[in-house]
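ESCALATION

Customer reports they have been waiting on this structure for their group meeting. Please prioritize. Original submission:
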Amino acid sequence: MKIAIDAMGGDHAPRSTVEGAVAAAAQWPKAELLLVGRPEALNPLLGAGKPPNVTVVPAADIIAPDDEPVRAVRRKPDASMNVAARMVKEGAADAMISAGNTGALMAAGLLVLGRLKGIDRPGLTSLFPTTDGKGVLTLDLGANMDAKPEHLLQYALMGSMYRQKVHGLAKPKVGLLNVGTEAAKGNELSKAAFELLETAPIHFIGNVEARDVLSRSCDVLVCDGFSGNILLKAIEGAAETVFGLLKQELTSSLRSKLAAAVLRPNFRRVGKMMDYKVYNGAPLLGVSGLIVKSHGSSDATATMHAIRHTVAAIDNGLIPALAEEFGGK
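Update from on-call: job pushed to the front of the queue and completed.
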């Protein structure tokens, strides 16, 4: 398998991308990792110890974080993100990964690869960490701000298939994000989507409140992009605040520091359980190819895990399965 990696995208690129790819190359030697970017920036980081399954693919330009997405995709054909997307389109790669501009990546998915037949609006996913370590796949997280009930139905079907194919769950539980668990709760979109999901060929468990997401009340959480993006940023902000307060309190006095030393193994276990790096790698479901969004602040470890999830998606035939499922719809 071949995976094209936008080596220039992300807050810590290209070093984090190169180091993550080198670590992944040793873990999955069957994967050929194609680092797309400026050779003069990538080759010195690889050095003489470049793994045999890592290759540099030249790309002269970069899509910046503040570039307007559609304009950047159209006007920067030689940008690393665009080159990687075309490689998937032309069959030179089985998938692509990027930690770059999210809007541009979604635009590249639509403009370069196009939608899967039968899909109206692609959805951006993420695997949220949960207390049992299994995570909850949530979509959409911002690809489609103004969704229709039919879009949420498609997200539910794609998300359920993703968890079956990539995570091996035989019967994933699908929930609908809402302000209450009762079927009659929510706005008109939620109520209409509830009716569609009730009769869909999935294991629909009903409405799920935001407070229950991290306890894994479901395996797939469906929402519109507006609500999903707010949920994502609220969880990230809350986690950052809580861990910051804990660090502040546990270093505030000698007694606190001694207590922290005793509890350090416990804190490490909690930190590992909730570490976004392990869950990094969010596919854009609904486009005609496998595009995986890596977190913008990804370090080498997070990049390696994004590659891990991409390898699993390719191995389990995620995109062909989605194409077969929706092709006749």
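Sent to customer with the following note: The longest strand covers residues 32-37.
Escalation resolved.
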